[in-house]
Amino acid sequence: MNDTEYRNSYLLMTPGPLSTTEGVRRAMMRDWCTWDDDYKEITQNIRSRLIHIGECTPDNYTAVLLQGSGTYVVESVLTTVLDDQSKLLILENGAYGRRMATVAKTARIPFESYSFGETNPVDPEFVAARLDADPSITHVALVHCETTTGMVNPLQEIVHVIKQRGRYAIVDAMSSFGGMRISVEALNIDFLISSANKCIQGVPGFGFVIANTNALAQCEGRSRSHSLDLYDQWRVMEENNGKWRFTSPTHVVHAFHQALLELAAEGGIPARESRYVENQRRLVEGMNAAGFSELLPNAHQSPIITSFLYPTDDFSFEEFYQSIKKRGYVIYPGKLTEQATFRIGTIGDIHPSDIDRFVSVVAEIVGTKR
């Protein structure tokens, strides 16, 4: 299958996996040896670039890569960082915050979770009050961009109250890192988690953690898992110049390195965020014109993915989905528990001209139904 055929199969209007560039796909066409210095150099270069993107200094922060999906990496952090004397507060307003609670419960990590509802942002004042009321809470975890809805939580304000009270901050930035500016060191985030197949525009296969080095160094021997021991993964990478503990997804790693080069060539995060913002603006404008309303107010909406309400009680998402797919686009069903929605992503190798064509297709489909 040539590149034109790849591109013409369908465009992924999703929050990851997402549509990738020809360069990223071609980067997977070579085989690599995990022990070879050339491959380890690629790993080290990736780690260095992630620290730079996170606006960190290498003296204070490190990057650790880990096989598996984003959830694997979230579990790695929670099961490595917290010991039996720790207590975790999970701030949730969607499915991915709830998933962290499931991980903590399964691993028997002492925790409590608080739900702000699926359409409300996390309230920093509540966080401050809860931490003041319970000094046994040692760590706080939250999702920056909750792709259940497209909600972006007020990260700076939340982390400020966490750090002001001397607690550790764990941030799931799965769907935002690389597409929205996050100054990890300036915010004093202890552990930031993301994945290869999101805004950096790689493909699925591994995730990564940008960690405060001192905080990570305290985690030796804590892990509740052998394979997901974040401390040991970091130790081996540090002591062996980029060597992974176990077999790494070599083709995916090389593709991610290419994606990082392409991010830099685009103009870094400011340019990519600007493109995503324009994508999302045009999407909402076009969907509104076709009769759809977005779920969230603009103040809480990320440029990553947007939830739209069903326009009528008899709206068939499956029929709408198949009609769009036949015309070359794939979107996401809703993930809310209380409202009927569907979701459309605006990240990946998608540009404003792609959005214009997409909303024209939507208008055509909706017009044929009237």
Automatic annotation (TrEMBL):
Gene Ontology molecular function: any one: 2-aminoethylphosphonate-pyruvate transaminase activity
Cofactor annotation: pyridoxal 5'-phosphate
Reactions catalysed: (2-aminoethyl)phosphonate + pyruvate = phosphonoacetaldehyde + L-alanine
Keyword Transferase applies: yes
Entry keyword set: Aminotransferase, Pyridoxal phosphate, Pyruvate, Transferase
Stored HAMAP family: PhnW_aminotrans_5
Family recorded in the similarity comment: Belongs to the class-V pyridoxal-phosphate-dependent aminotransferase family. PhnW subfamily.
Protein name listed in UniProt: 2-aminoethylphosphonate--pyruvate transaminase
Species annotation: Alicyclobacillus dauci
